[in-house]
Specification:
Layout lengths: L10 H15 L55 H12 L12 H13 L10 H7 L10 H14 L11 H13 L10 H9 L11 E3 L10 H16 L5 E3 L21 E4 L22 H13 L5 E5 L3 H5 L13 E5 L12
Parallel strand pairs: 1-2
Antiparallel strand pairs: 3-5, 4-5
Helix pairs in contact: 1-8, 2-5, 8-9
Length: about 350
Amino acid sequence: MSTSNSMRPRMARRALIALCVVALLAAVPAATVAFPGDPTEALNGVGSLAEETTDPLLGEDVHADFASAFFPTQSRGNRGSDVMAIQYLLRHRGYSVSVDGIFGSGTESAVKSFQTNNGLTADGIVGPNTWGKLVVTVQAGSSGDAVRAVQMQLNEKHNYGLSVDGVFGSGTDSAVRNFQSHAGLSADGIVGPTTWKNLIWHYEVPAFGLASLCEYGDTGDAWGTGATIGQLTAAAQAFYGRGYGPVAVGDISLQHGGDISGHASHEVGLDVDTRPIRTDGAQCSYGTSVGQSSYSSSRTQALCNDLRAYASGHVKVIWFNDQNIINSGCSKYLDYHADHLHIRYCERSHPNTSYQC
């Protein structure tokens, strides 16, 4: 699985987002994370090595494309570029928040204040109604934090390489028009509600140039929502800091979602496959499986813990067939998941209930 050469330069900006969370990583040691158990889950072995073709939680087939674009619901515990957009827009509206890509207590408090001041339910959850009030129409000649939000989104979602300087100049205008054409919109250079919605909804790819991340598998299917990529990157940074090597990422979704070969899911940018961790830390080069001498249960447990810790409240399930990790409450059994972890991220609200937290 490899992204096009045009996507590679994004790693510098992705690294900036990753650096925003580094200061918090040491505060959540893997051993202290607790997970709810599920005594009704079938625990009947580790499964076999085979292609993943079943999905017990997927109740409907969802084909994601621009025609069904929507504002993704973001709430406390989310991370990534879409959270950064919220923070920039709040700053544009006069609220004092840090732009760090982490939806923490400060961002939640600012969102609640914004909601109260705009006649919305003050629940701290940024859903379609809050997004609709929050976004600001900008165009050539505009300036400020709303423009920075647009520039950052264009960089993360489509690798335009813009300076995030808050000045809507010719370069930003050209990038906006190019993105609008890509999304099938009128290329007028005006970032109004519809362009905002398509931009925020668009998937992005991880920065595989980071030391903490690498890719394996097929081509062109490593696209995820802003939250998926932000949360995965933060977990990988934490895990890599433990000295166990990088996180090897496989399938996520296609650029605009839709059917992906060999899977019943991975269609909406919220499912991620990663390799288990090897005793030699060489999971970027080689796979392993539960029961093999190269497989490290303790290191894979640490990865599972970090994946949950850095997406607090936004992991629906992790499927992986190591009995010890299942017993810890971090993963659940599913056939054919002995050679990879399948992480399903979730949101407080989503068109498909299989992805609702």
